[in-house]
Amino acid sequence: MPRILLTGFEPFDRDTVNPSWEVARALDGWQTDGATVQTLQVPCVFGAALARLDQALDAGPAPVLVVGLGLAGGRAEITPERIAINVDDARIPDNAGRQPVDAPVAAEGPAAYFSTLPIKAIVHALRAQGLPASVSNTAGTFVCNHVFYGLMHRLATRPELAGTRGGFVHVPALPAQAARLPGMPCLPLETQVQALRVLLRTALAVRQDIAEAGGALH
Amino acid sequence: MPRILLTGFEPFDRDTVNPSWEVARALDGWQTDGATVQTLQVPCVFGAALARLDQALDAGPAPVLVVGLGLAGGRAEITPERIAINVDDARIPDNAGRQPVDAPVAAEGPAAYFSTLPIKAIVHALRAQGLPASVSNTAGTFVCNHVFYGLMHRLATRPELAGTRGGFVHVPALPAQAARLPGMPCLPLETQVQALRVLLRTALAVRQDIAEAGGALH
Amino acid sequence: MPRILLTGFEPFDRDTVNPSWEVARALDGWQTDGATVQTLQVPCVFGAALARLDQALDAGPAPVLVVGLGLAGGRAEITPERIAINVDDARIPDNAGRQPVDAPVAAEGPAAYFSTLPIKAIVHALRAQGLPASVSNTAGTFVCNHVFYGLMHRLATRPELAGTRGGFVHVPALPAQAARLPGMPCLPLETQVQALRVLLRTALAVRQDIAEAGGALH
Amino acid sequence: MPRILLTGFEPFDRDTVNPSWEVARALDGWQTDGATVQTLQVPCVFGAALARLDQALDAGPAPVLVVGLGLAGGRAEITPERIAINVDDARIPDNAGRQPVDAPVAAEGPAAYFSTLPIKAIVHALRAQGLPASVSNTAGTFVCNHVFYGLMHRLATRPELAGTRGGFVHVPALPAQAARLPGMPCLPLETQVQALRVLLRTALAVRQDIAEAGGALH
């Protein structure tokens, strides 16, 4: 059965939980439209995260879909990312203590890759289900963007992955995290898992994205 | 059996749902610590809301607790209010088209009343349960503050309500509302209801509030 | 010549400058409508700040106007405060290391005092001059609110101050502060001083505030 | 004398002023390090803005520097943009009523271009002067990004512009705009002009950007 590879991060920045991994593992083995979700926890470490992704990509047939998940503390919505950029610029050290500044993710790679997920259709479907979602135009410059760019670079350059689509989605904090950080928005795990089901189903079903304004003035 | 009076608002500002009422009615008849929750929907109308509150207060023995709920679109947490102020200053018209500016809620009332709920203990208990909460130092100047002030004025001035404690709590938008308002934080109904259970239980149990910093620099 | 007493705070929270004092001292000796500005630096210390205020109030005839200034880091506008509340609740220690929690400013004082400045007319005049301003409904619970409440309590209870009007105004950070705190809004000193001139002139001229909506939904 | 081409936008979204143009024209003819600022007002119209840019690029020798300015309502700082992306996605119509959705800026262009301004050195220099500044990782998807991408595409593909560096900088609203939009951060024109002087001087002087963390977690 075709596989969907769904990645989440280990905790970082002194936290003990990361919703991106909690959401992913809640969906491990979930089947939809003839595909099965396979999950992968990646370390919050530049380089090592992509090495781990490579192992999972190589271990089996090409996935139909690869979706990376990451925590965006401070965002209130499920935010499919539009674009991955070729830069590592770490505001804080990663889990291995590395803090690259303005280094490329891939030395010979282009400046950026667009997501090949139908991000507009996904946002449309989520909102229609009463779930808060918006397109994001920046995945930052930390390990989330690093994994996103690294993934899209592999999908664009490896012949065996030519038929695989992929992208990255930031998710909000969990209530238990927000309970420690006054003012931070959150979404409960069940709501996030429900949103990811809608997202994956839409990503499988829609190959030509819809034309619906989802831009930002700046 | 002693009653807890729990009020919520009808929808306002062109919306079709108001989480404050959804949360209240989900708890109608709920029993805790020997008290039963009785719910009341109040109109989002200056004056009429308090008339409706008066009816409910008069219809039966004095409640042990009266808790008003209101929607705070844009807040991400359950926020027990610290203080009600004696002013109506409406930025938008209420549901009857009234828009008072700098009018007192009660002509002869004091400038403000403090909540008599244990707001610090409530925030502490909610956070301990992994639920996002903070003390708020302003309930605004619209119908929420109007009901809050009107309630506290009644509790302070009517002899038969001398033993009744009360206060007001703002709640976030629901996911379905946030899905229509990009960027708005939300909490699902079940999470809000769960929080209100913790809140009411704590309010009944704690008569002397705890001393835990919960202030704001400005 | 009648005096306007204008207070500003010393720096706090490990900073080396406080715009509230910079603005005040830039206006020392400024004359408008037959009154002269006299400035006073107050320590960012519960209790000691009011002792210093008392000295200045006692040293000479009753001022026609007393305006307290304080920094509101994170606010983008000049914000005249509507109400002072009778509580000290310090999120961080003051400059003497004190951190009161839920203590009254004045043991026998009422829950709150409204500003006796024409806050709506002030906001109207500032905006008309192209200066960003809004009414604020909370001055927080730190030393700013402490000074504001303490001031209004003195104006309300001391017969010799019966004719003195007063209030409190929060001001934004300075550009040099914002340059150290990415994302923080700011206003240059000259703009803040210009705004205070408009504010004091309006406060002297308008004795009956205008009725213009300036409220908050929550 | 070598020229620096500095562009600003005409007003948009029903406003009557645009700080990006006010700042630009205040610097028209300003000389620094042997170069002279030449200014250009571009329409807030997809396509037409780039046609106007082309005219200015063609009318004379290649500039040493081309810097586009645009308003970012809601931002509090001077924000040099890191990257221009190949997409037009308009949340609101432009000044000609056009509202492209997910159309490329340049049909055959790459996904993105990095700014060739020393954005880290610029932010460092601005902060050192007490001026609020941060790197931005998204210029949005409206006409600002359109001009930024179009500019970088021309610099990358036209041989005669091979020696020209360029980029885009978003600036905050002016106080008079913030006075009409409660809560919006702003910076006075003089402060913005002062910042642009520092920015242009730094851009001319620094050819190899400094390595200083300026990234975002998301």
What is the helical fraction of chain A, as a range of percent? 25-40%
Radius of gyration of chain A: 16 Å
Mean pLDDT of chain A, to the nearest integer, reads 97
The helix count of chain A comes to 6
- Give, in spatial order, the strands making up the sheet with the most strands of chain A: 2-3-1-4-8-5
Furnish the topology, listing elements before pairings.
Four copies of one chain form a homotetramer.
Chain A: E1 3-9, H1 19-26, E2 31-32, E3 35-42, H2 48-58, E4 65-71, E5 79-80, E6 83-85, E7 112-114, H3 119-128, H4 143-157, E8 165-171, H5 175-178, H6 189-205
Helix pairs in contact in A: 1-6, 3-6
Task: Summarize the model shown.
Chains A, B, C, D: One of its GO terms (cellular component) is cytosol. The structure is a homotetramer of 218-residue chains. The first copy, chain A, has six helices and eight strands, in the order βαββαββββααβαα.
Task: Tell me what you see in this structure.
Chains A, B, C, D: Removes 5-oxoproline from various penultimate amino acid residues except L-proline. Chains A, B, C, D: Its EC number is 3.4.19.3. The structure is a homotetramer of 218-residue chains. The first copy, chain A, has 218 residues and is α/β, with parallel strands linked by helices. Chain A has one domain: Aminopeptidase, CATH 3.40.630. The first copy, chain A, contains six helices and eight strands, in the order βαββαββββααβαα. In chain A, helix 1 crosses helix 6 and helix 3 crosses helix 6. Chains A and D meet through strand 7 of A and strand 7 of D.
Give the tags:
two-stranded antiparallel sheet, homotetramer, Aminopeptidase, 218 residues, alpha/beta, 6-stranded mixed sheet, 18% strand
